[in-house]
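At your convenience, could you comment on the folded chain following this short note?
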Amino acid sequence: MRKIRKGDEVIVLTGKDKGKRGTVLRVLEDSLVVEGVNRVRKAVRPNPMRGTQGGFQDKDMPIHVSNVALFNPAAGKGDRVGIRTLEDGRKVRFFKSNGEVVDA
């Protein structure tokens, strides 16, 4: 079970985008693509077969999973996440600071 999943709201802990919040768009092996974080300007070649124009395009690049933390709305900041097994056998994620369950 992954501690950070697609659709989670995360906050960046280190790097040029420190303090930014965003939603996880994709989860790769050990990195994440977060909306609006680690944005670069890429040159794109025109492709008449697809009907795309050339030029520059802004693109979100992956950021390592260790550089982000799951955003805790109760605390208003990033928090560490643990995994707990409930009485009915389900595994759920919870915030380490207050023990609140992330996914109900």
Q: What stands out?
A: Residues 9-76 form a domain with the SH3 type barrels. fold (CATH 2.30.30.30). The chain has a mean pLDDT of 93.
